[in-house]
């Protein structure tokens, strides 16, 4: 097993007033040659958007884009005709493929929205763009890992054009669980949302991350009450 620790305070920091974004990997004006990507995981942005503000219409292509609201409501519109609101508990996915345009705004005028935007490099180019959004049930991740994304439309969660699996978990203090690799050769990027965990002998606090490669299974242990984590298993070869 090989690991690389990315502490929360090592992320890129972009504060535009209406938007405060923390970049786990090189993005926009933040560039770190040692943190361009982790396998096919290209972007992990931890975004805080002020009330009523947001991103105007902008294009994407040939990228799998996943949004996970952590607090508040995110309003989405796109060139495929979708107009939705993504709430805490939902997960949204867009396969940009041959090209889409979309906008994202804080739906609320009285409170901020916090969400993760994740980009995964696809294993197929120029696919027909598509959109999907589902509501997840938090009880299904209490003291266990809840699958929220996979390569298979028939599986639990949303799906993308890549051999990737995402899981969310919320744990009581001292609860342990095991994660077993889904596809040999894949790596995994563990990102702590709240609380702290111990993984592979490393202690991770809020918004710390651990990249793990060359493994079959590992154990994670919650060190604090109500500890939450996002596990992203992805191929390591671009």
The profile of the biggest β sheet is: 7 strands, mixed
Text of the CATH class of the largest domain: Mainly Beta
Which topology of the largest domain does CATH recognise?
A: Jelly Rolls
How many domains make up the coordinates?
A: 2
Backbone shape: globular
State the assembly state of the protein chains: single chain
Radius of gyration: 17 Å
The CATH superfamily of the largest domain is known as Jelly Rolls
What structural category arises from helix and sheet content?
Answer: mainly beta
If you average the pLDDT, what whole number results?
96
**How widely separated are the two ends?**
20 Å
Short précis:
This protein has strands spanning 2-6, 12-15, 19-23, 41-49, 54-60, 64-71, 73-78, 83-87, 90-95, 100-106, 113-120, 130-135, 145-150, 158-159, 165-171, 176-180, 187-194, 197-199, 202-204, 209-213, 217-222, 227-234.
List keywords for this structure.
22 strands; Jelly Rolls; mainly beta; globular; 7-stranded mixed β-sheet; 238 residues; 2 domains
Summarize the helices and strands and which ones pair or pack.
Blueprint: E1 2-6, E2 12-15, E3 19-23, E4 41-49, E5 54-60, E6 64-71, E7 73-78, E8 83-87, E9 90-95, E10 100-106, E11 113-120, E12 130-135, E13 145-150, E14 158-159, E15 165-171, E16 176-180, E17 187-194, E18 197-199, E19 202-204, E20 209-213, E21 217-222, E22 227-234
Parallel strand pairs: 13-14
Antiparallel strand pairs: 1-20, 2-3, 3-4, 4-11, 5-10, 6-9, 6-11, 7-8, 7-10, 9-12, 13-15, 15-22, 16-21, 17-20, 17-22, 18-19, 18-21
């Amino acid at each position: 097993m090989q690991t690389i620790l990315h502490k929360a305070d090592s992320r890129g920091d972009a504060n535009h007033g209406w938007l405060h974004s923390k970049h786990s990997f090189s993005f926009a004006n933040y560039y770190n040659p040692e943190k361009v990507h982790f396998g096919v995981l290209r972007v992990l942005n931890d975004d805080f958007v002020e009330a009523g503000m947001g991103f105007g219409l902008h294009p994407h292509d040939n990228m799998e884009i996943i949004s996970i609201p952590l607090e508040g409501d995110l309003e989405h519109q796109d060139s495929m005709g979708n107009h939705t609101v993504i709430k805490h508990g939902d997960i949204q996915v867009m396969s940009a493929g041959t090209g889409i345009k979309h906008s994202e705004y804080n739906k609320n005028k009285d409170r901020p929205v916090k969400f993760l935007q994740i980009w995964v490099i696809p294993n197929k180019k120029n696919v027909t763009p598509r959109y999907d959004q589902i509501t997840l049930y938090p009880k299904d991740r209490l003291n266990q890992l809840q699958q929220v994304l996979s390569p298979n439309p028939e599986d639990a969660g949303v799906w993308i054009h890549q051999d990737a699996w995402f899981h969310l978990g919320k744990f009581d203090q001292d609860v342990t669980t095991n994660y077993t690799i889904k596809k040999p050769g894949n790596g995994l990027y563990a990102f702590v949302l709240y609380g702290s965990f111990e993984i592979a002998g490393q202690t991770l606090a809020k918004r710390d991350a651990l990249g793990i490669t060359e493994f079959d299974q590992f154990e994670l242990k919650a060190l604090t009450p109500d500890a939450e984590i996002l596990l992203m298993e992805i191929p390591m070869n671009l």
